[in-house]
Amino acid sequence: MTTTETATIRVALVDDQQLVRAGFAMVIGSQPDMDVVVEAGDGAQALRLLGSHPVDVVLMDVRMPAMDGLAATAELTGAPGPAGVAPKVIILTTFDLDEYVLQAIKAGASGFLLKDAPPEEMLAAIRTVHRGDAVIAPSSTRRLIEHLADVLPDEQRTPPAVLESLTDREREVLVLMARGRSNTEIAGELFVAEATVKTHVGRVLAKLGARDRVQAVVVAYETGLVTPGS
Protein backbone atom coordinates (compact mmCIF):
# COMPACT_ATOMS: atom_id res chain seq x y z
CA MET A 1 0.00 0.00 0.00
CA THR A 2 1.10 3.54 -0.65
CA THR A 3 1.35 6.29 1.90
CA THR A 4 -1.66 7.95 0.28
CA GLU A 5 -3.79 4.90 1.05
CA THR A 6 -2.72 4.41 4.65
CA ALA A 7 -1.64 7.69 6.24
CA THR A 8 -3.76 10.40 7.78
CA ILE A 9 -4.36 13.30 5.38
CA ARG A 10 -2.58 16.34 6.80
CA VAL A 11 -4.62 19.47 6.12
CA ALA A 12 -3.75 23.18 6.33
CA LEU A 13 -6.44 25.86 6.67
CA VAL A 14 -5.56 29.28 5.27
CA ASP A 15 -8.27 31.93 5.74
CA ASP A 16 -8.27 35.35 7.38
CA GLN A 17 -11.59 34.63 9.09
CA GLN A 18 -11.00 32.73 12.31
CA LEU A 19 -14.59 31.52 12.51
CA VAL A 20 -14.30 29.97 9.04
CA ARG A 21 -11.12 28.15 10.05
CA ALA A 22 -12.71 26.99 13.31
CA GLY A 23 -15.73 25.57 11.50
CA PHE A 24 -13.65 23.73 8.93
CA ALA A 25 -11.26 22.46 11.62
CA MET A 26 -14.15 21.03 13.62
CA VAL A 27 -15.52 19.11 10.64
CA ILE A 28 -12.11 17.88 9.45
CA GLY A 29 -11.03 16.93 12.97
CA SER A 30 -14.06 14.65 13.29
CA GLN A 31 -12.72 12.39 10.52
CA PRO A 32 -10.49 9.43 11.41
CA ASP A 33 -8.41 9.84 8.24
CA MET A 34 -7.77 13.61 8.49
CA ASP A 35 -5.93 15.99 10.76
CA VAL A 36 -5.59 19.80 10.69
CA VAL A 37 -1.88 20.42 11.26
CA VAL A 38 -1.54 24.08 10.20
CA GLU A 39 -3.79 27.15 10.44
CA ALA A 40 -2.86 30.52 8.95
CA GLY A 41 -4.59 33.89 8.53
CA ASP A 42 -2.93 34.92 5.26
CA GLY A 43 -0.72 33.62 2.47
CA ALA A 44 2.54 34.90 3.91
CA GLN A 45 1.96 33.22 7.26
CA ALA A 46 0.95 30.04 5.47
CA LEU A 47 4.19 29.94 3.49
CA ARG A 48 6.24 30.41 6.66
CA LEU A 49 4.43 27.62 8.51
CA LEU A 50 4.27 25.24 5.57
CA GLY A 51 8.01 25.63 5.06
CA SER A 52 8.55 23.45 8.12
CA HIS A 53 5.29 21.50 8.45
CA PRO A 54 4.62 18.74 5.90
CA VAL A 55 1.05 19.03 4.59
CA ASP A 56 -0.89 17.03 2.01
CA VAL A 57 -3.83 19.32 1.21
CA VAL A 58 -4.25 23.08 1.73
CA LEU A 59 -7.64 24.80 1.86
CA MET A 60 -6.73 28.29 0.61
CA ASP A 61 -8.88 31.41 0.68
CA VAL A 62 -8.42 33.79 -2.27
CA ARG A 63 -8.79 37.22 -0.73
CA MET A 64 -6.54 37.75 2.30
CA PRO A 65 -4.26 40.53 3.62
CA ALA A 66 -0.44 40.47 3.35
CA MET A 67 -0.45 37.83 0.59
CA ASP A 68 -3.51 36.59 -1.23
CA GLY A 69 -4.33 32.99 -2.04
CA LEU A 70 -3.28 33.24 -5.67
CA ALA A 71 0.29 34.27 -4.89
CA ALA A 72 0.56 31.76 -2.05
CA THR A 73 -0.76 28.94 -4.24
CA ALA A 74 1.78 29.70 -6.97
CA GLU A 75 4.64 29.58 -4.46
CA LEU A 76 3.39 26.45 -2.73
CA THR A 77 2.85 24.40 -5.87
CA GLY A 78 6.01 25.65 -7.56
CA ALA A 79 8.40 24.13 -5.05
CA PRO A 80 8.51 20.89 -3.06
CA GLY A 81 7.48 21.10 0.57
CA PRO A 82 9.35 19.79 3.64
CA ALA A 83 8.46 16.21 2.66
CA GLY A 84 9.81 16.73 -0.88
CA VAL A 85 6.36 16.94 -2.48
CA ALA A 86 4.33 20.10 -3.03
CA PRO A 87 0.94 20.02 -1.29
CA LYS A 88 -2.30 19.97 -3.26
CA VAL A 89 -4.31 23.19 -2.99
CA ILE A 90 -8.10 23.57 -2.88
CA ILE A 91 -9.24 27.14 -3.36
CA LEU A 92 -11.94 28.46 -1.03
CA THR A 93 -14.10 30.77 -3.08
CA THR A 94 -17.45 32.23 -3.96
CA PHE A 95 -19.00 31.71 -7.38
CA ASP A 96 -18.49 35.27 -8.62
CA LEU A 97 -14.68 35.45 -8.57
CA ASP A 98 -14.51 34.80 -12.31
CA GLU A 99 -10.99 35.19 -13.70
CA TYR A 100 -9.37 34.99 -10.26
CA VAL A 101 -10.46 31.38 -9.97
CA LEU A 102 -8.91 30.52 -13.32
CA GLN A 103 -5.70 32.24 -12.26
CA ALA A 104 -5.67 29.97 -9.22
CA ILE A 105 -5.89 26.87 -11.40
CA LYS A 106 -3.05 28.13 -13.56
CA ALA A 107 -1.10 28.81 -10.38
CA GLY A 108 -1.44 25.14 -9.50
CA ALA A 109 -4.69 24.72 -7.55
CA SER A 110 -6.24 21.27 -7.84
CA GLY A 111 -9.84 22.15 -7.12
CA PHE A 112 -12.38 24.51 -5.61
CA LEU A 113 -14.66 24.55 -2.61
CA LEU A 114 -17.49 27.01 -2.23
CA LYS A 115 -17.43 28.46 1.27
CA ASP A 116 -21.06 27.51 1.84
CA ALA A 117 -20.61 23.95 0.59
CA PRO A 118 -21.99 21.21 2.87
CA PRO A 119 -19.44 19.44 5.11
CA GLU A 120 -19.61 16.17 3.17
CA GLU A 121 -18.68 17.99 -0.03
CA MET A 122 -15.65 19.56 1.64
CA LEU A 123 -14.48 16.20 2.97
CA ALA A 124 -15.01 14.57 -0.43
CA ALA A 125 -12.99 17.34 -2.07
CA ILE A 126 -10.07 16.84 0.32
CA ARG A 127 -10.00 13.07 -0.24
CA THR A 128 -10.39 13.41 -4.01
CA VAL A 129 -7.58 15.93 -4.40
CA HIS A 130 -5.36 13.87 -2.11
CA ARG A 131 -5.81 10.79 -4.29
CA GLY A 132 -4.67 12.81 -7.26
CA ASP A 133 -5.99 10.66 -10.08
CA ALA A 134 -9.66 10.71 -9.14
CA VAL A 135 -12.69 12.51 -10.55
CA ILE A 136 -12.62 16.29 -10.36
CA ALA A 137 -14.69 17.03 -7.28
CA PRO A 138 -16.68 18.54 -5.77
CA SER A 139 -19.29 19.27 -8.40
CA SER A 140 -18.71 22.99 -7.88
CA THR A 141 -15.31 22.65 -9.52
CA ARG A 142 -16.84 21.68 -12.85
CA ARG A 143 -19.53 24.38 -12.57
CA LEU A 144 -16.87 26.99 -11.90
CA ILE A 145 -14.75 25.88 -14.85
CA GLU A 146 -17.79 25.98 -17.15
CA HIS A 147 -18.66 29.43 -15.83
CA LEU A 148 -15.13 30.64 -16.45
CA ALA A 149 -15.22 29.26 -19.98
CA ASP A 150 -18.03 31.71 -20.68
CA VAL A 151 -16.51 34.82 -19.08
CA LEU A 152 -12.80 34.43 -19.89
CA PRO A 153 -11.52 37.02 -22.40
CA ASP A 154 -10.27 35.57 -25.68
CA GLU A 155 -6.73 36.86 -25.11
CA GLN A 156 -6.47 34.80 -21.91
CA ARG A 157 -7.57 31.54 -23.51
CA THR A 158 -5.25 28.71 -24.49
CA PRO A 159 -5.02 28.52 -28.31
CA PRO A 160 -6.51 25.35 -29.89
CA ALA A 161 -3.13 24.57 -31.48
CA VAL A 162 -1.95 23.02 -28.19
CA LEU A 163 -4.27 20.10 -28.90
CA GLU A 164 -2.53 19.20 -32.16
CA SER A 165 -0.03 16.96 -30.38
CA LEU A 166 -2.81 14.77 -28.97
CA THR A 167 -3.86 11.57 -30.70
CA ASP A 168 -7.55 10.95 -31.39
CA ARG A 169 -7.75 8.58 -28.43
CA GLU A 170 -6.04 11.09 -26.15
CA ARG A 171 -8.60 13.70 -27.18
CA GLU A 172 -11.37 11.25 -26.34
CA VAL A 173 -9.85 10.70 -22.91
CA LEU A 174 -9.51 14.45 -22.32
CA VAL A 175 -13.17 15.03 -23.23
CA LEU A 176 -14.26 12.34 -20.76
CA MET A 177 -11.98 13.80 -18.08
CA ALA A 178 -13.67 17.16 -18.64
CA ARG A 179 -17.04 15.51 -18.16
CA GLY A 180 -15.93 14.34 -14.73
CA ARG A 181 -15.35 10.68 -15.52
CA SER A 182 -12.99 8.62 -13.37
CA ASN A 183 -10.33 6.38 -14.91
CA THR A 184 -12.57 3.37 -14.28
CA GLU A 185 -15.52 5.04 -16.00
CA ILE A 186 -13.39 6.12 -18.96
CA ALA A 187 -12.11 2.57 -19.33
CA GLY A 188 -15.69 1.29 -19.40
CA GLU A 189 -16.81 3.82 -22.02
CA LEU A 190 -13.82 3.22 -24.29
CA PHE A 191 -13.69 -0.56 -23.72
CA VAL A 192 -10.03 -0.53 -22.67
CA ALA A 193 -8.13 -1.49 -19.53
CA GLU A 194 -7.90 1.03 -16.70
CA ALA A 195 -4.12 0.84 -16.91
CA THR A 196 -4.38 1.96 -20.53
CA VAL A 197 -6.48 4.94 -19.47
CA LYS A 198 -3.88 5.92 -16.87
CA THR A 199 -1.24 5.84 -19.59
CA HIS A 200 -3.37 8.06 -21.84
CA VAL A 201 -4.06 10.49 -18.99
CA GLY A 202 -0.35 10.73 -18.23
CA ARG A 203 0.43 11.48 -21.87
CA VAL A 204 -2.33 14.11 -22.06
CA LEU A 205 -0.98 15.90 -18.99
CA ALA A 206 2.58 15.77 -20.32
CA LYS A 207 1.67 17.05 -23.79
CA LEU A 208 -0.48 19.87 -22.40
CA GLY A 209 2.04 20.79 -19.72
CA ALA A 210 -0.69 20.35 -17.10
CA ARG A 211 0.12 19.59 -13.46
CA ASP A 212 -3.06 17.58 -12.92
CA ARG A 213 -6.48 16.74 -14.31
CA VAL A 214 -8.00 20.07 -13.32
CA GLN A 215 -5.51 22.03 -15.40
CA ALA A 216 -6.04 19.66 -18.32
CA VAL A 217 -9.81 20.18 -18.10
CA VAL A 218 -9.35 23.95 -18.13
CA VAL A 219 -7.37 23.59 -21.37
CA ALA A 220 -10.18 21.46 -22.82
CA TYR A 221 -12.67 24.28 -22.16
CA GLU A 222 -10.35 27.13 -23.15
CA THR A 223 -9.60 25.57 -26.53
CA GLY A 224 -13.24 24.79 -27.25
CA LEU A 225 -12.70 21.02 -27.27
CA VAL A 226 -15.41 20.87 -24.64
CA THR A 227 -18.18 23.43 -24.24
CA PRO A 228 -20.26 24.20 -21.13
CA GLY A 229 -23.19 21.82 -20.78
CA SER A 230 -21.85 19.33 -23.32
TrEMBL record:
<dbReference type="InterPro" id="IPR011006">
    <property type="entry name" value="CheY-like_superfamily"/>
</dbReference>
<feature type="modified residue" description="4-aspartylphosphate">
    <location>
        <position position="61"/>
    </location>
</feature>
<protein>
    <submittedName>
        <fullName>LuxR family two component transcriptional regulator</fullName>
    </submittedName>
</protein>
<keyword id="KW-0597">Phosphoprotein</keyword>
<feature type="domain" description="HTH luxR-type">
    <location>
        <begin position="159"/>
        <end position="224"/>
    </location>
</feature>
<dbReference type="GO" id="GO:0000160">
    <property type="term" value="P:phosphorelay signal transduction system"/>
</dbReference>
<dbReference type="InterPro" id="IPR016032">
    <property type="entry name" value="Sig_transdc_resp-reg_C-effctor"/>
</dbReference>
<dbReference type="Pfam" id="PF00072">
    <property type="entry name" value="Response_reg"/>
</dbReference>
<dbReference type="InterPro" id="IPR000792">
    <property type="entry name" value="Tscrpt_reg_LuxR_C"/>
</dbReference>
<dbReference type="GO" id="GO:0006355">
    <property type="term" value="P:regulation of DNA-templated transcription"/>
</dbReference>
<keyword id="KW-0805">Transcription regulation</keyword>
<keyword id="KW-0804">Transcription</keyword>
<dbReference type="InterPro" id="IPR039420">
    <property type="entry name" value="WalR-like"/>
</dbReference>
<dbReference type="InterPro" id="IPR058245">
    <property type="entry name" value="NreC/VraR/RcsB-like_REC"/>
</dbReference>
<dbReference type="GO" id="GO:0003677">
    <property type="term" value="F:DNA binding"/>
</dbReference>
<dbReference type="InterPro" id="IPR001789">
    <property type="entry name" value="Sig_transdc_resp-reg_receiver"/>
</dbReference>
<feature type="domain" description="Response regulatory">
    <location>
        <begin position="10"/>
        <end position="130"/>
    </location>
</feature>
<dbReference type="Pfam" id="PF00196">
    <property type="entry name" value="GerE"/>
</dbReference>
<keyword id="KW-0238">DNA-binding</keyword>
